[in-house]
Specification:
This protein is an alpha/beta fold and 426 residues long. The protein has 17 helices and 14 strands. Helix 1 crosses helix 4, helix 8 packs across helix 14 and helix 9 packs across helix 10. The protein starts with a helix and ends with a helix. The mean pLDDT is 91.
Length: 426
């Protein structure tokens, strides 16, 4: 009898949590307070609504994934889907421990559920097996999942849901979204130039995490430091059973040395760690989207993995948790370009021989070489490096130097200000 009462109480708690997360069931207008600033990612998701594939939305914690899900829900209701037929479950909620149990209880509340949104799904072991059963039975019209771990597309989804899913990686606000938040419309207009460059300086320092955009520098730093520590301990130390001090040391080193070339051996020597430990731990930071790692460009796969660079997912986060002895504007500009290239779903590398190229992008076997120099006094080496690369690689289509304000075309090189490059579709 006691066991029965406990099970009944658990079911009641689960159903209570389900109703708590789905406030639009009784009051669709309640979504207005949740949708926030429309993300640029939203249009891609809405275009894919006709496809039956599972939509997985992944990215670093608190980058706006949940709000993006709310924005999709908001649009579905506008399109005529009944609010009560849209189910949202947040698996950061300790009451929601099992996926199958949560869906079962949801269907008891409403058997007509047609659209399912599963947030922070990486907290549920083998979730993909349960979802595949529902997918194969065509139980729901749409399934969205979100998570803060790259394994959503590698280990978990890759083995079980191959060919059944579409992935969207969400990052903190882009500069264009940052301007939208501050109501800067038509930023390319000359009359907006001073405002745009003013906000660019703020963006480079504070970054684009939604929670920090309207906060002062002190509050922003507090939020970002707390977020960083939360990711280290919850997403790396706990998930991978990693050593706390080692994680902290490697994270601090990589965040401080964004855009600098490194190898596992150089980190091991600098931090007095074993090579194998560094090789094991560095991918953890990529897994949780704290960092993006670049390999050296080469047509030979083996060469690509010998030299590396790392960039932070957000310049504000990097500034909050690293050691800085200057404003680092050049590194921050370069980091910002890399994240934008990632948003544009571009294959990115760096290149170094006699001279160095910050970014090489590859699309349909055509190459674009990009150097970032956040100044108007363009160093000669930046130009010579691009010309050297083009001479060596005949498939080079474009040469670009991203500057502070200089805009011109010379020697086959496009010089473009950073603010303009960030808001212009390339």
């Amino acid at each position: 009898m006691e066991t029965f009462i406990k099970e009944l109480a658990y079911v009641c708690f689960v159903k209570e949590s389900i109703q708590k997360w789905n406030i639009w069931w009784d009051n669709p207008g309640s979504l207005n307070a949740l949708v926030g600033v429309e993300r640029l990612f939203l249009s891609d998701l809405l275009k894919n609504l006709e496809l039956p594939h599972i939509k997985d939305i992944i990215g670093i914690r608190r980058s706006g994934k949940t709000v993006l899900l709310y924005q999709v829900i908001f649009n579905l209701i506008k399109q005529g889907v009944k609010p009560k037929n849209i189910l949202y479950l947040n698996f950061d909620d300790p009451q929601l421990k099992e996926l199958e149990e949560a869906i079962k209880n949801s269907l008891e509340l409403n058997p007509e559920i047609s659209h399912v949104f599963l947030d922070e799904i990486q907290n549920i072991n083998e979730w993909e097996k349960t979802i595949r059963v529902y997918y194969d039975r065509k139980k729901f019209k749409q399934v969205f999942v979100s998570g803060s771990s790259a394994s959503l597309i590698s280990r978990d989804i890759g083995k079980t849901l191959t060919g059944r899913h579409i992935t969207k990686i969400v990052t903190p606000f882009s500069f264009k979204e940052f301007l939208n938040y501050h109501n800067i419309e038509n930023p390319e207009q000359i009359s907006k130039r001073e405002k745009v460059t003013h906000f660019l300086e703020i963006y480079l320092k504070k970054g684009g995490f939604p929670e920090t955009i309207d906060k002062d520098e002190f509050v922003s730093k507090t939020i970002l430091v707390d977020l960083y520590n939360d990711i280290l301990f919850r997403d790396i130390v706990s998930r991978f059973e990693a050593d706390t001090e080692t994680v902290k040391k490697i994270g601090y080193y990589l965040m401080t040395n964004i855009s600098s070339q490194f190898s596992y051996n150089t980190i091991a020597k600098a931090l007095n760690l074993h090579y194998d430990t560094v090789k094991k731990y560095v991918p953890f930071f990529e897994e949780v989207f704290l960092l993006f790692k670049l390999n050296e460009f080469s047509w030979k796969i083996k060469t690509q993995t010998q030299k590396m660079k790392a960039y932070s997912v957000d310049t504000g986060l990097r500034n909050a948790v690293s050691f800085k002895f200057s404003d680092d504007s050049g590194k921050l500009a370069e980091n910002t370009v890399l994240i934008e290239l990632k948003r544009r779903k571009t294959d990115v590398y760096f290149w170094k021989e006699k001279r160095e190229i910050d970014f090489i992008t590859k699309e349909n076997n055509e190459l674009t070489a990009i150097n970032v120099t956040y100044t108007n006094q363009i160093p000669k080496r930046e130009i010579e490096g691009l010309l050297e690369f083009k001479q060596k690689f005949k498939k080079t289509k474009k040469l670009v130097i991203i500057t502070k304000d200089t805009e011109k075309k010379e020697k086959g090189i496009n010089f473009i200000p950073l603010w303009k490059w960030l808001i212009t579709k390339q």
